[in-house]
Amino acid sequence: MEAHAMGSHGIVGSSDGTEERENSSINMFSEGVNLNLIQPSLEEDVSTEILLANKKLRSTVWKEFELTMLDDGTYKAICKHCKKDFVAGNRAGTSHLKYHIGVCSKLQSKRRKFGSPKLDIPIFDQQRSRDDFSRMVLAHGYSFNMSEHYYTRIFLYNLQPSFKLVHRTTLKDDCMRIYEEEKLKVYQLFEKQSCRFSLTSDMWTHTEMSGYMSLT
């Protein structure tokens, strides 16, 4: 009975020691788990801050904003011009910040004040463009049908949608009108000369059977 009791006490004693060691191990393990749970969150906060810092350096949008961290660990982007604040962070992106730059009245006012003056928009003149087209046809010997070519119309429409090409017969009339105007200018130039001069003409034909006259 004593042996059994001693054995029982031994077992009980051994059991108590085991429970203490197990409890100690459990406490240590739980503390270890708590530390492991805390550590990644710290690393996550640091990595988030680093990513935001890198993004600030890379994106030009941050030239117009100040990045501020709030007490709860979140970030705000504050406009340097109108002082409005916006959500900032890796998941927020910068599209809303870029949009604000385009509509910020104070920023646009500064750009108009200190920016370069706007270039004057050229005024379209239908008659002048029509005469220029006719002179091009005359100078290069193009066909009057050029005004009706499909890609000629597309090309000129993309350059100036307001320009209206004329029919080939109208283009021919424009070329003849310009020819008469230029011939009159030559006559008037000769009349203004106070000296005598002689002119020599030479006729020749191009390989495409186009006739030309050279005047010296």
From TrEMBL:
Protease as UniProt keyword: no
Keyword DNA repair appears in the UniProt entry: no
Region annotation Disordered: where it falls in the sequence: 1-23
Keywords: Metal-binding, Zinc, Zinc-finger
InterPro entries: Cuticle_assoc_protein (IPR053031), Znf_BED (IPR003656), Znf_C2H2_sf (IPR036236)
Pfam family, one: zf-BED
Top-rank lineage group of the source organism: Eukaryota
GO terms under cellular component: nucleus
Listed GO biological process terms: regulation of transcription by RNA polymerase II
Domain BED-type positions: 74-101
UniProt GO MF annotations: sequence-specific double-stranded DNA binding; zinc ion binding
TM segment ranges: none
Protein name: BED-type domain-containing protein
